[in-house]
Every structure is written in structure tokens, then in C-alpha cells.
Amino acid sequence: MYTKNHYPDLLTKEELETILNITPLMTTDRFKALMTEEISWDHNVWTLDHQTIPPKIIRYLIDHYTCYLRDCTRLTKNLNRVAKELEKLYFVQADAHIYINKNPKVPHPFGIHFDKSTNLIVQCVGVTNFKVWTKEVEDKDGENVQLEMEEPPGLDIDLEPGDSIYIPAYFPHLATSRTPRFSVSFPMTQPHEYEFESERSWMKI
Q1: How far apart are CA 35 and CA 67, in angstroms?
Q2: Which residue in 44, 73, 141, 194 is a FRET match for 13, CA 20 to 30 A apart?
Q3: What is the overall mean pLDDT for the chain?
């Protein structure tokens, strides 16, 4: 399901820059670059968490690879709000993954693939083409990346800032960057899979 201008200004370029510059947030668990290259670095003597990635390494990775951040729903009030809406609507737990691709010539490392979670994807900056095949895969436990499809996609659409697309679990899809871009994907658990409700209150001081 595609919705035009569904979430305008969900995450601005300035907000993303602020997030990327908070070094304690940039841990190897949260920040991922889709690459095979091995990189090492040194830490400032005051660094408490040696899983944090220094800014110059973050800069290098963003310039050369498709990158994403996970566990991001509480990084801004807007991300938290949308996650809360999804959780209430679908009886799920939701996360937020921020995908960044500065170089449209870098192919999507997953190719045509499917996810085991339902996703709401919101374009924030730039343009991304999405192709979605409208039938779930038969082998849900099989290989989920670099798929080859015989049928044409049921949906072929360019997402512009504010646009969203809802992709059910196990539905093959392909994302292709038309321009430098970043987007937010909200993966969701299966409905009623967990009884625990996420904490969505927003603190004020």
C-alpha cells in the first residue's frame, strides 16, 4: 500500500546529522554498514563504550556504503509517535531503522529480497524506487536475499519525501536509490506476538 505525503518531515536532514554526531549512540550494535571490508579504530581516553564508532569512520562508511541505524524509535519525538501509532493500530512492537545511501550507483546489497517482519517505509530525503511483488513467498524459511522473480512486480513506484509504502512480511521487494537519500523503515512483530507494551511516554523537563 502506497500513500502520498503520508508523513511529511518525519525525520529531517538536520535531525539525522545531530543523531550521527552523538558518538555514544553510534555503537557497532546500532550503526551498520552493508559491507565486507574490515575496519578498526582507536578510542579517545574518555570513551566509556568501546563499541562506539568514531565520527571519521562514520563519515567514511556513509560515503562508501549503504548504512542503517536500528533501535531508533526514541531518537526523536516524531519517530516515537509513529511507532506508538503502529503499535496501537496493529497490536505489535515496532522499531525504526534509518537507511542512508549517499551514492545511487551503489546497488542494494540485498537485491530483490523479503523480510520476515511487516514494514512501513517512509521516504525522508531524496527519491527511492520501490518494486513490490504482491504475493508472499512459498518458502518462508529459505534464502531471503538476491531472489529471482519470474513475474513482474505488482507495484513499481518512486517514493518522494513524505511518501510511505507498507510491505507485508514475506513479500519480495527491491529498493533502488534514484538520488542520494535516506528513509525510515518501521519493522513490526507479528500481531499479539508479545504481551509487553513498548514504553512510549515522552519525557519533559
Answers
A1: 9
A2: 44
A3: 93
How many whole angstroms separate alpha carbon 194 and alpha carbon 69? 23
pLDDT of res. 36: 83
Indicate the pTM of the whole model. Answer: 0.93
Q: Judge contact between 47 and 27, C-beta under 8 A.
A: no
pLDDT (tens digit, 9 = 90+) per residue, 38-81?
898 998 899 999 999 999 999 999 999 999 999 999 999 999 99
CA angle, 181 then 184 then 188, to 5°: 150
Q: Are 87 and 192 contacting, i.e. CB atoms less than 8 angstroms apart?
A: no
Q: DSSP code of 52? A: B
Give me 72's grid cell.
531508533
Do 3 and 157 meet the contact criterion of CB atoms below 8 Å apart? no
- Classify 87 as helix, strand or coil: helix
Is 166:115 a contact under the CB 8 Å cutoff? no
DSSP 3-state assignment of 79?
helix
The helix (run of H) or strand (run of E) holding residue 17 is helix 13-20
Q: Which cell is 157 given?
A: 513506484
Q: Taking the CB of residue 201, how many other CB atoms lie within 10 A of it?
A: 7
Q: CA of 89: how far to CAs of 73, 85, 92, 140, 163, in Å?
A: 16, 6, 8, 25, 19
